[in-house]
Amino acid sequence: MTDSETTGLTGRWRDAATPRDTAKWIQRAQEVADILVVDAVERDRANATPHEEVRLLKESGLVTLLGPREHGGAGESWETAYKVIRAVSRGDGSIGQVLGYHYLWAWAARLVGTDAQISAVEELYTSNNFLFGGAVNPRDSDLTIREDGDELVYSGHKSFSTGGQVSDLTVLEGVLEGSDTHIFAIVPTAQPGIVFANDWDSLGQRLTESGSVDIRDVRVDWASAAGFTDRVFQPLTYNTLNVPAIQLVFANFYLGIAQGALETASAYTRTKTRPWPYGGDNKAHASEEWYLLDGYGDLQSKLWADEALLDKAGAEISAVLHAPREELTERRRGEIAVQIAAGKLRIVEDGLEIATKVFELTGARASASSVGLDIFWRNLRTHSLHDPIAYKKREVGEFVLLNQIPEPTWYT
Known about the structure:
Helix content is 50%, strand content 12%. By secondary structure, the protein is of the alpha+beta class.
């Protein structure tokens, strides 16, 4: 995607009315996907930092989808955001992931911040159309935080920092020296103390800029420590919604990737796949072949079922994310987490089946590198390894057999 091409494509929204309802925002997201899909394979292979793709997200208005209307945002719900992530991912799974992570980190102030911090952060990112990244990887050692007067000083290394090099703001998380106190803070990305290693070179999701980052004495005012008043944090069950919220982000861009795979494959079959001439029931067109009709029917029915399950989970978590924080109970949080676990495990298994089966439904010539069907399997396979799906099955099983809800952790 060249600079001139992107400028021309995004200019289409310059005089367009801002979408004012869910359907129009999803339509806008699909327009973005239609732009991205044109050269998704070429951009994936180039593995370049996606500056232009992020500019596309910003100019379309999708970056401030959850931002308050009084600051120029769309004021939309998480239920809409999940569907937008899914739509963008049909065109490019990497960019859908970057957008989904942004939504989660843009909500970080609401998850743990004070009322004043929430107001300040939302005005900052919405009015400036800023994109978030996050240096918060639980499997690494935590960043260390030392106190220096009225400042906190973050230092350490993180193996993954999705969206890092294309972000305007970065969420940091670390542990205060001499304690077990975790502290989140939001800082400008462009500063000498945040150093990206440019080492992201994965099988899939290649444009997510998820490489490692060094945090070198990044300073934050104590007053900006998310959720702290007089240096004391008051926990709420609501604070733990970050994990189910982002697990559902994962599931929705997996669904978008799988939908993109089936759409791409079916278009290929309709126009290029040749009918098999040795079956005794010869057809004029491949789209009349009984085994292809059977195959596409099976895969599409699974996607429709997955979509319904994820939409239900999205509606339920959206309701609590937008409700007063004090109202959320541990039980309700756990019930929603189980639904999300069920949706995630289904789309991982169905999505990987789809991304593999499409080769059988398109034929040998569709395995050519120029067709690019491999991008869907590579993207889905890569990110679905984020945390073991077997544990999601166990969470659902414990709920069904033992009436147990998952204990909140960095992965549940």
